[in-house]
């Protein structure tokens, strides 16, 4: 058996850090070469980071990325490197380069450009049309980029018919709940249908609201995963493949033979012959398959990764959080400590006359459990001063949400004062349920530079808190058990003003993520008036969501790039 050794370099690239990404790529090439790797593959647009967005409209950015590609080629000696970059001809292309012994041997341009959800590639790139196959000692290797492999009719079909034993698929595939299994199931089908092994390498790390989960893997022609990397961590996944065994399997199956009999080579197919001899190896690398995560563990790691990278990649150091003694601020603070360390997280208690003794105790207990520094800034006197100044204008009017929002805005001002004075970034603590129905105060509890739980439903907040407490019980049990309340007026309870969250979240999910009509939601057993009320709240609060801080996306349809509703909009569902 001649072992062909591949390495999948699951790196955390930073958008725009061309020099830093280049150095990281070179470092991984050197590590792979020490392990006698024959071919190393890097993620999609590894040099520029993903997504570079309007940086792609800057010619200087594109030129610098091409200079970096050449620098990487010079370091790719006695090893084949496949690196994602931006190519430039008459237009620009999302591309993969094949590097060997100081030269760019071949280039492949992405054939299918995604333009849905968070993707906007048609805005920037020209679609490629060529299909590249590498030939090395008679063995054939195909190449593709991310979206290319999601279509049943894709470059892999032709590469398999042309005799490829292996296809390298490089990716920047963002995470959302369920994406890992969906991706793996699809690639297993592609491998089985084409009698080919597929090596899938994915980006890892946070980029604004996106989180990339890694989970790079190799699947064999029978659809079995034979090697898999870590989730949400940089990794170098090394596998030894028996390309002869794959060829023998193809010989015994008539499907490819029948397709080849009808196949006429297309002009767009380019076969590139590599002057490379597979290295002799005396030891086989043990196949490594990282265990799958539970959903709660997966989401929690995504939130930790997204927060850590947003803070570090934007050159912040410390964060500050308003601690209310409630579940949202407790979970946000816990994630922040896990992401950044306790010394980089500050908590602020801002009690009013409506704040319960239990909430203060719970906030202080949480801070003690996490080991973070806290400050207590009571707002009662400030609130009374506001009311005194406004009394002449409000004369004769009953207290309402105005007075509630005043308290939230006082707290927002205090947090921003600490942010300005010390350079701490404020973390907003609102969740997706609140953001959906507008149960949040502009310039109050919506204040912040980053919203960790922005795409996390309230019911999921409790699941994540329980998961984290199963590791070490840092969130006080009473926080998990007491009814959630904004504590902006006497005896206030969230669910009295909204609905029980288990019902509210289902309605929001169906309307926001599934686009199910009010009538059809009601037919599923929900009270019609409650459904209509929730939908009205969602529709009329688009202006608030547009002003909310960026937050981590963990669902298939987060607010922002996924769901793009006009603010000025007279269409109503009901």
From TrEMBL:
Entries under PROSITE patterns matching the protein: CN_HYDROLASE (PS50263)
Sample GO molecular function, one term: NAD+ synthase (glutamine-hydrolyzing) activity
Record gene name: nadE
HAMAP family, alphabetized: NadE_glutamine_dep (MF_02090)
Homology family: Belongs to the NAD synthetase family.
Chain ranges of the CN hydrolase domain: 4-243
Reactions accelerated catalytically: deamido-NAD(+) + L-glutamine + ATP + H2O = L-glutamate + AMP + diphosphate + NAD(+) + H(+)
Binding site for deamido-NAD(+): 405, 434, 544
Family annotation (Pfam families): CN_hydrolase (PF00795), NAD_synthase (PF02540)
InterPro entries for this protein: C-N_Hydrolase (IPR003010), C-N_Hydrolase_sf (IPR036526), Gln-dep_NAD_synthase (IPR014445), NAD/GMP_synthase (IPR022310), NAD_synthase (IPR003694), Rossmann-like_a/b/a_fold (IPR014729)
Function noted in UniProt: Catalyzes the ATP-dependent amidation of deamido-NAD to form NAD. Uses L-glutamine as a nitrogen source.
PANTHER family, per the entry: GLUTAMINE-DEPENDENT NAD(+) SYNTHETASE, NH 3 /GLUTAMINE-DEPENDENT NAD + SYNTHETASE
Pathway named in the protein's UniProt entry: Cofactor biosynthesis; NAD(+) biosynthesis; NAD(+) from deamido-NAD(+) (L-Gln route): step 1/1
E.C. numbers: 6.3.5.1
Residues annotated as binding L-glutamine: 116, 173, 179
Active site: 44 (proton acceptor), 110 (for glutaminase activity), 146 (nucleophile)
Binding site for ATP: 322-329, 429
NCBIfam families in UniProt: nadE (TIGR00552), PRK13981.1 (NF010588)
Protein name, entry field: Glutamine-dependent NAD(+) synthetase
Keywords: ATP-binding, Ligase, NAD, Nucleotide-binding
């Amino acid at each position: 058996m001649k072992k062909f050794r591949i390495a999948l370099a699951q790196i955390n690239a930073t958008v725009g850090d061309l020099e830093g990404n280049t150095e990281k790529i070179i470092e991984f090439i050197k590590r792979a070469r020490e392990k006698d790797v024959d071919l190393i593959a890097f993620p999609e647009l590894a040099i520029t980071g993903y997504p570079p967005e309007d940086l792609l409209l800057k010619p200087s950015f594109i030129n610098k990325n091409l200079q970096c590609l050449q620098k990487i080629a010079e370091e790719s000696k006695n090893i084949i490197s496949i690196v994602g970059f931006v190519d430039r001809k008459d237009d620009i292309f999302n591309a993969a380069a094949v590097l060997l012994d100081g030269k760019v041997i071949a280039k492949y341009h992405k054939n299918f450009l995604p333009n849905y959800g968070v993707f906007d590639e048609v805005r920037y790139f020209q679609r490629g049309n060529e299909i590249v196959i590498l030939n090395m000692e008679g063995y054939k290797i195909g190449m593709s980029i991310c979206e290319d492999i999601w279509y049943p009719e894709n470059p892999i079909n032709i590469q398999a018919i042309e005799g490829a034993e292996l296809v390298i698929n490089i990716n920047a595939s963002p995470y959302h709940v369920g994406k890992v299994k969906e991706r793996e199931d699809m690639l297993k089908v592609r491998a089985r249908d084409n009698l080919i092994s597929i090596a899938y390498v994915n980006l890892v790390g946070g980029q604004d609201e996106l989180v990339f989960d890694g989970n790079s893997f190799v699947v064999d022609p029978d659809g079995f995963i034979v090697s898999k990397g870590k989730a949400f961590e940089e990794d170098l996944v090394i596998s030894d493949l028996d390309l002869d065994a794959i060829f023998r399997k193809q010989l015994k199956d008539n499907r490819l033979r029948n397709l080849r009999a009808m196949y006429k080579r297309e002009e767009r197919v380019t076969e590139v012959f590599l002057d490379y001899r597979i290295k002799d190896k005396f030891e086989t690398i043990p196949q490594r398959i990282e265990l799958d995560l539970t959903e709660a563990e997966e989401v929690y790691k995504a939130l930790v990764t997204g927060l850590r990278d947003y803070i570090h990649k934007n050159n912040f150091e410390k964060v500050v959080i308003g601690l209310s003694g409630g579940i949202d601020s407790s979970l946000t603070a816990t994630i922040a400590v896990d992401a950044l360390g306790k010394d980089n997280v500050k908590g602020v208690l801002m009690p009013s006359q409506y704040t319960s003794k239990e909430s203060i105790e719970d906030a202080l207990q949480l801070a003690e459990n996490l080991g973070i520094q806290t400050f207590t800034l009571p707002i009662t006197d400030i609130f009374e001063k506001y009311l005194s100044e406004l009394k002449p204008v409000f004369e004769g009017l009953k207290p309402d949400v105005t007075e509630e929002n005043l308290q939230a805005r006082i707290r927002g001002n205090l947090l921003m004062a600490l942010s300005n004075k010390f350079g701490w970034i404020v973390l907003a603590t609102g969740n997706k349920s609140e953001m959906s129905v507008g149960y949040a105060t502009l310039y109050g509890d919506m204040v912040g530079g980053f919203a960790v739980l922005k795409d996390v439903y309230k019911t999921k907040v409790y699941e994540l808190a329980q998961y984290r407490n199963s590791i070490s019980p840092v969130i006080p049990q009473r926080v998990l058990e007491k009814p959630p309340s904004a504590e902006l007026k006497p005896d206030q309870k969230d669910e009295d003003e909204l609905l029980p969250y288990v019902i509210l979240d289902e309605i929001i999910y169906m309307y926001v993520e599934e686009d199910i009509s009010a009538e059809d939601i009601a037919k599923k057993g929900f009270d019609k008036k409650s459904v209509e009320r929730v939908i009205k709240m969602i529709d009329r609060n688009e202006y608030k969501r547009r002003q909310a801080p960026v937050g981590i996306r963990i669902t298939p349809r987060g607010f922002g790039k996924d769901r793009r509703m006009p603010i000025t909009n007279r269409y109503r569902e009901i």
